[in-house]
Amino acid sequence: MTTEKNLVRSVTVDIAAPAELVWSVLTDLPSYPQWNPYTVKVESTLRLGEPVNLFLPNPARPGELLHVVEHLADFEPHRLLAWEMHASAGNPDAARREQLIERTGPDSCRYHTTDQFLGPTADTVMANHGPWVKQGFDAVALAVKARAESLHAAAR
Q1: Which end of the chain has the least Cβ crowding within 10 Å, N or C?
Q2: Cα 76 to Cα 20: distance, rounded to the nearest angstrom
Q3: What's the pLDDT tens digit per position in 29-72?
Q4: What is the residue extent of each domain of the chain?
Q5: Helix intervals (H) in the chain
Q6: What SS3 state is found at 66?
Q7: Long-range CB contact pairs, 118-122, < 8 A, 24+
């Protein structure tokens, strides 16, 4: 990303599983409800430029989901999965979410995720939602680690 301003970054987790397995966890969208506490449902073809429908627990209305539509921006197997929200006439908010995997060995890798708030509302979005996004992203990082390590142990 270009700048640290209005950037939310999760904790970085070391994962005792191959980068390929972590990638498969991130791209197995139908399984998100089984492990992902923040993005509890995702619908997408995972083709560049196409919509990514994200469903998140609504912090203002427990039990309800927020539906956010972004578009797949980067798809680099075993390394980077990113989607973006572009500002529009009806919604001035814009952001880019990146999920990054760094291979550290044949059976290990490192993961973190970021969200860069962009556009005219970036400061406001960061002030109003940054802490909630950070908490969610930290939970996702820990959940990706747990899911991948569990799958890796079961495959041995």
Answers
A1: C
A2: 11
A3: 999 999 999 999 999 999 999 999 999 998 889 899 999 999 99
A4: 7-155
A5: 19-27, 32-35, 122-155
A6: strand
A7: 118/6, 118/87, 118/94, 119/87, 119/92, 119/93, 119/94, 120/87, 120/92, 121/87, 121/92, 121/93, 121/94, 122/5, 122/6, 122/94
The interaxial angle of helices 19-27 and 122-155, nearest 10 deg, is 120
- Report whether 56 contacts 36 (CB < 8 A): no
Structure tokens at 118: 């962009």
Q: Domain 7-155 falls in which CATH fold?
A: Alpha-D-Glucose-1,6-Bisphosphate; Chain A, domain 4 (3.30.530)
CA distance 21 to 46: 17
Distance between CA 43 and CA 55 in Å, rounded?
9
C-alpha gyration radius of the chain: 15
| Residue type (1 letter), 134 | K
**pLDDT at residue 3, rounded to an integer:** 62
Count the residues in the chain.
156
